[in-house]
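Sample intake — ABC transporter domain-containing protein
Collected from: Rubricoccus marinus
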Amino acid sequence: MLAIQTRGLAKTYSGRPPVVALRPLDLDVQPGEIFGLLGPNGAGKTTLVKLLLGIVHPTEGEASMFGTSVTEPLARKPVGFLPENHRFPDYLTARQTLDLFARMAGADSARAPALLEKVRLAGAADRKVKTFSKGMMQRLGIAQALMAGPKLVFLDEPTDGVDPVGRREIRDLLLELAAEGVTLFLNSHLLSEIERVCTRVAIMKEGEIVRDGTVEALTQTGRLWRLRATPIPESVAHTIGGTLQPDPAPILSPEASAAAASGETPLRGYTLAAPDRAALNTALDAMRASGVEIEAVEPLRQSLEDLFVEVVSEPSGAPVADSL
Ligand SMILES: Nc1ncnc2c1ncn2[C@@H]1O[C@H](COP(=O)(O)OP(=O)(O)OP(=O)(O)O)[C@@H](O)[C@H]1O
């Protein structure tokens, strides 16, 4: 059963003029996925989360979580939520905060010590939250979201304002949860974080999902390849299709140095532009035919940030598939 399913889900906020925040969306999120939703400010990310959580109501379409329509309060029973910039009463301790949320959720507060342990706050259980760092606050927020033992957790900017060590702790915690089978729905502007944890990423723009896939598939350029090979003579470089760009400096890896010391020809790094795999192989055949030894060939990836900037700066309504 799908963790999240939407069919034609759309939202227009009334007003003058009305704001189309979400265009009809069909989205399936499988249980166990770590789904990252990206998009520039105003793309409609929060609106989608609010629709799923029943905070706003759709103009059209429907949505369900684990098979229960989001119009039913019961749909939210297996769901946890860490809102962006959440605040807890600062006179409460971490333990008291979880007690309070447990009571509000009708959950068993006996889980609190184990949860504090899980988010590495056991040592700070009796400290007032006003003394907490941003990282500790976020981890307490995650503990709160886990209070009722959810199967699906929405996390809005979970690492916002958290330093690199704190971000790593949160990342490890999210991976741990996913390993336990909890489905995670992350909203974040920190692309490097999304890149590291998400099993699937969607990029939203002007109320529409314009890219959707694994980080690996989305960041593949499809046209550029990295090669490690013995030096490719100029004459060969001329004959092969595409463009061959040598790295500025020879490879200085320990293996390359060892190879040079043992009398083997040292390797060089190259970037090859080839329109498709067939063209790549023709180029490789030409290299091998002239005695070039190839050690490695791999597709060159762009970063998620490069992809994001590319997508966001595309003119509206641009065809999606062509530019991948
Ligand atoms: N309550 C509302 N009434 C009217 N317009 C709204 C309301 N909430 C959001 N909007 C508009 O809907 C559009 C989508 O907003 P939304 O908050 O979903 O975007 P977002 O992708 O979450 O942005 P951000 O990254 O800034 O949080 C924006 O144009 C926003 O101004």
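Post-analysis note: Residues 222-301 form a domain with the Alpha-Beta Plaits fold (CATH 3.30.70).
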